[in-house]
Design a protein that fits this description.
Structural class: mainly beta
Radius of gyration: 11 Å
Largest sheet: 5 strands, antiparallel
Helix content: 10-25%
Number of strands: 5
Oligomer: single chain
Shape: globular
Distance between the termini: 30 Å
Order of helices and strands: HEEEEE
Length: 66
């Protein structure tokens, strides 16, 4: 089972300090049309990012919330 922390780690490439719950992003993957998951996480003390990851392919994206 994927946790919020492990999903954030897949997107960021390293373990985040903290992560919010995984949610359905209500959008389709631009590469394959698959379902996209969303997770908010803190890679450092001063940053909060929202990460998006397709369930069906390798597509991923991040947005800064600050």
């Amino acid at each position: 089972m994927v946790t919020a922390e492990s999903l954030a780690e897949l997107i960021e490439g390293e373990t985040p300090m903290e992560a919010t719950e995984i949610e359905d992003a209500d959008r389709e993957c631009p590469d394959c049309g698959g379902n996209v998951l969303e997770v908010g996480y803190m890679p450092s003390v001063t940053d909060f990012l929202t990460g998006y990851k397709c369930q069906d392919c390798a597509w991923q994206e991040t947005e800064s919330d600050g």
